[in-house]
Amino acid sequence: MRSVTGRLMLLDTASLYFRAYFGVPDSVRAPDGSPVNAVRGLLDFIDRLVRDHHPDDLVACMDADWRPAWRVELIPSYKAHRVAEERPSGPDEEEVPDTLSPQVPVIESVLDAIGIARVGVDRYEADDVIGTFTARARGPVDIVTGDRDLYQLVDDARGVRVLYPLKGVGTLQITDEAVLREKYGVDGAGYADLALLRGDPSDGLPGVPGVGEKTAAKLLAEFGDLAGILAAVDDPKARLTPAQRKRLTEAHPYLAVAPKVVRVADDVPLPEVDTTLPRTPRDPDAVRELAARWGLGGSLERLLTTLAR
User: Fold this and answer.
1) What does pTM read for this prediction?
2) Which candidate, 294, 249, 287, 280, places its Cα nearest to that of 110?
């Protein structure tokens, strides 16, 4: 991957097309009657993001494996409630609305035809792809996601922030370290420790029983990080209540593996890809065919106009 020194925007693509799917009426359909609300909604999102934030480089990061086996081996409950069908080889099938699944290949085809870099890597989630691009970037990074897990990448010193959609993408929470400290009492580096202590039912992470968000934040403020907390458990002089010491001791097997599950990877083998924001479509004929086939109309036209500026 070439060195990215300008403003890099990384899209948590599935997070955004899920939001588009639920935010745009399913009455938005192709000429043959197929729903295209997620497709058109995502194109509108990207158009607004490019107009408002002016990235130099843009990557649509994909879930090649939404529930990697190496994470499940460590914590079997990881995303287990989202499994629609277990598969002996390859990723399990994720539970996705019936009218959204057929739209995902259309989204991929449209992004490819436009020339927006689209990257997914076997055995890794989009979060890991985002983490690796972020680690390699030499300029500022905007991560667009509706998943708070990626708050762990926020880093003011490096210009890494999370654009978290509150309503569509017109209203974004620009998440920097000041926002994290105000809301959670931690900085970006501390957010992963907060998350694994607190747990996250939406990801099947049990957390430490009896340790909620406020208690987790207090423990991190007192002892610095997870390693400091675990050292305090072994130190009879450390300022832990008997209940906290007992809970953390009992949760030690979970705490020994949770960091690898919760922290995004930063060493994914990324493919060679040109992340430059395209000014003209890579495949104009394919763009025209897709626009007609799926009735993408104004959504696609607006994005192409914005990219050409």
Assistant:
1) 0.94
2) 287
